[in-house]
Design a protein that fits this description.
This protein has 2 domains: 2-51 and 370-416, Urease, subunit C, domain 1 (Roll), CATH 2.30.40.10; 53-364, TIM Barrel (Alpha-Beta Barrel), CATH 3.20.20.140. The chain is an alpha/beta fold. It contains 14 helices and 18 strands. Strand 10, helix 6 and strand 11 (245-249) form a beta-alpha-beta unit. Helix 2 packs parallel to helix 3 (127-139) and helix 11 packs across helix 12 (346-354). The structure holds zinc ion.
């Protein structure tokens, strides 16, 4: 007797008419028309069942702080950073934990069960680090939070608020000692190109020394000469970090000379560096200094994919100094990436779904991710027939499961119609 059977499911790869059986928190069977019975059986009616969404790039320390102490008037990255600097000294651990937990509730409701969050280490109190480590412990039964030590003010540029205080590199190492798992950075925010490159070397060496992954905010700029991704790829090769490094944003690639990019993408591929675009935030923050025509400012996702570089799409921000919207909905993220990168071919649209599921799972190093026999029963039932329809409809998450335990359930989304001679309702499915 199984614990649960989902009858008549469709998988993201297109296999359909399958039954999925859960026993002791794991996927015990997956095949057509299972003869087994279970304590609970659900008829999925041929709709999509996928592994949970994965967000490769988020900021949980600032989430839900929108409007504190004021809103970002210019809408730029730089005013956002300045605003966060104003807010930082007034943060309290309780408020930060409360906001992060609230966001995690939203994430679970959206079927988002794996989040890589950057956490600002440019604070002598390391308050956000302590708070998010506590959040990580509290949400562990239902959401996996992977933390990146992120020197928001620049690992070299940061000046401690009191003379003689710890520098950012010391604070970053302390955050790693406390349990933060990934090395972050922000080379384009350092004072000079040379400092930016030096910061990349310093941080990659630290990651190599400690056997950690690297995820840097890199070239989040419209400046076509912001080329820290080149240094990041070269350092990855030099230090043997292949497969453990990601460059987040990479928006300057949008503006770069195409000849230079034709050399850069093969270098990224050779170094095994992954790209993480953040479509909602890139389309909002970039191009702010442009008149018309106005650049989109998202990295070259289709060209990177064609060049063999893994590309994930991240949420980045929800209701914080950088972004006034957001709801933890990775289908919204995939949909925006699809639009901004003009990825409208059938394969390209499916790649946008992969960019919020399998690819970020690889980047985070999640083991056993995916729907296969023996895997932990982590899954989401979406009210859609396939990944493209899921993106189109930002499909309802009918059921969210982790380790076979139901974390969230939502009713079928359907609108009653009162139209003469037409059906009584519609669910917008094709
Ligand atoms: Zn970010």
């Amino acid at each position: 007797m199984l614990d649960l059977i989902l009858r008549d499911i469709t998988l993201p790869d297109g296999r359909t008419g399958l039954d999925l059986g859960v026993l002791d928190g794991h996927i015990a069977v997956l095949g057509p028309k299972l003869a087994a019975s279970a304590h609970r059986e659900l008829d999925v009616g041929g709709e999509l069942v996928c592994p949970p969404f994965v967000d490769a790039h988020f900021h949980m320390d600032s989430t839900l702080s929108y409007g504190l102490p004021r809103v970002n008037q210019s809408g730029t990255l730089l005013e956002g950073i300045a605003l966060w600097g104003e807010l930082k000294p007034t943060l309290t651990q309780d408020a930060l934990i409360e906001r992060a937990l609230r966001y995690c509730d939203w994430a679970v409701a959206q079927g988002l069960l794996f989040v890589r969050s950057h956490v600002d280490v440019c604070d002598p109190r390391l308050l956000a680090v302590e708070a998010l480590l506590e959040v990580k412990r509290r949400v562990a039964p239902y959401l996996t939070l992977q933390l990146v030590a992120f020197p928001q003010d620049g690992v070299l540029r940061y000046r401690p608020p009191t003379p003689g205080g710890d520098d950012a590199f010391t604070l970053l190492k302390r955050a790693l000692d406390m349990g933060v798992e990934v090395v972050g950075g922000i080379p384009h925010f350092e004072r000079t190109m040379e400092d930016g490159a030096r910061s990349v070397r310093l941080l990659c060496e630290l990651a190599a020394e400690r056997g950690l992954r690297v995820d840097m905010h890199c070239d989040e700029s419209d400046d076509p000469l912001s080329r820290h991704i080149e240094t990041l790829a070269a350092e990855t090769l030099r230090l043997g970090l292949q497969g453990r490094v990601a460059g987040s944003h990479l928006t300057s690639m949008h503006s770069m000379d195409s000849y230079y990019v034709s050399k850069l993408i093969p270098l990224m591929r050779e170094s095994g560096v992954a790209a993480i675009a953040n479509p909602l935030i890139n389309i909002t923050l970039q191009g702010r200094h442009d008149g018309y025509p106005k650049r989109r400012g998202m990295t070259r996702a289709p060209e990177l994919l064609a060049g063999g570089v893994p590309v994930a799409f991240g949420q980045d921000c929800t209701l914080d100094p950088w972004y006034p919207l957001g709801s933890g909905d990775m289908l919204e993220v995939a949909g925006m990436g699809l639009h901004v990168a003009q990825m409208t071919g059938q394969d390209a649209m499916r790649a946008c779904f992969t960019a919020v599921t399998e690819t970020p799972a690889q980047i985070l190093g999640l083991e056993g991710y995916g729907l296969h026999v023996g895997a932990r029963a982590d899954l989401v039932w979406l009210q859609a027939r396939d990944p493209v329809e899921a993106i189109r409809l930002r499909a309802a998450r009918r059921l969210v499961l982790r380790g076979g335990v139901v974390l969230a359930e939502a009713p079928r989304r359907e609108t009653r119609l009162h139209l003469p001679g037409r059906p009584a309702s519609t669910d917008l499915l094709r």
